[in-house]
Amino acid sequence: MIHPEGKYSKHKYYSCRAIYYLAKELKKGEDSSRAPYVRYLLSMPRGTMPGEWSDTGKQFLADMLGNGELPPYEEKWRNKFETQWLDECAGTDDDELEKAAYWLAASRDEDTLMVPIYDMVRCILYMHFFTRTKL
Length: 135
Prior knowledge:
Layout: H1 16-28, H2 35-43, H3 55-64, H4 74-77, H5 80-88, H6 96-108, H7 116-131
Helix pairs in contact: 1-6
């Protein structure tokens, strides 16, 4: 399990400590005590969250959503990396694995916890229900 190292708080939707911890485990790679899960996470495609997109991609999505008229509203996705990771967590934009950790946590954690089996089952169910892929 990836967690904020003893500082778990139910209904807290992100944790700087958990993201830093995840980045540390991602950097360890095969040497991580969570290597199977780390391997799985590192195999996930990047750029799936709108906040990860280029400025042009973000603007296209905003235009398609009526520039704030339809959900998801821009304040929910457009600058989360900058406000949460760079400002609140004092993270860096230069470290690719830290950025990956932020986006993996943003898309996969549940109340700041990342539980491998829950994460994998959720992805399988998503594929089944939203893409009609047979299990």
